[in-house]
């Protein structure tokens, strides 16, 4: 299976799920007392940033993607929309670990100026939990005295990491994982073949973003290896298995993700049956696997050896 390239939130016009969050926003807008700051929170990859862009399109008269405002939002050239997120570390080839104060401070001048198109000014902070303390404090000062006709949307998969004072100044909207019906529609719209959709829905837990990540697993090859390992076959892992995993796009990350998900589910089942010692042992293996993934990716260690080490962690259960 060749995974289709997913659209970015800026380029996604169809909205699936999140009906309650949309209704709350629309009710607030129609009341004429739209809150100035919103916290959109929920699991990763379920469409929170897409929802934030949809709100921005409503406020900036760009719901129609072919309208002048709609085209500017899609192109990233709308003068009344500012989007902030973690930048790319070109040297390491991955997203930076933080959003820093220098990236947040320009919001102040952006919000204080007159709207270029005579309406709202909108700011989206995607991954708000990655703001460091200086960035969060800079944003907090803006929220204490918000200008009129300005709306900020903070998107976060870990709202507990935000400053409590920051959370208290936002209206929270809980975003839930998508239903299977919504997931099926999203995946078909993104171009996934029918034979792949059911497998991805089962493993994605209501997250189109996770489904897109799992879509890198050609024909479910890594998932098959993970299933065999979790059924007691990890001790037979071979260098050939490791090579076949590492050769795939995102192969090592896929292995760790699927193994971690399987271990998490097993630990929950054991805890539910009061097998607490066994649940703790599986939870410890889950932690060891997560640490192996972090260290391998952080220090660019040999992924083939890391795959075999992951097998050892599982085989000890």
From TrEMBL:
GO terms for cellular component: DNA polymerase III complex. GO terms for biological process: DNA-templated DNA replication. InterPro entries: DNA_Rep/Repair_Clamp_Loader (IPR050238), P-loop_NTPase (IPR027417). It comes from the Bacteria. Pfam families: DNA_pol3_delta2. Transmembrane segments: none annotated. This is DNA polymerase III subunit delta. It comes from Neoasaia chiangmaiensis.
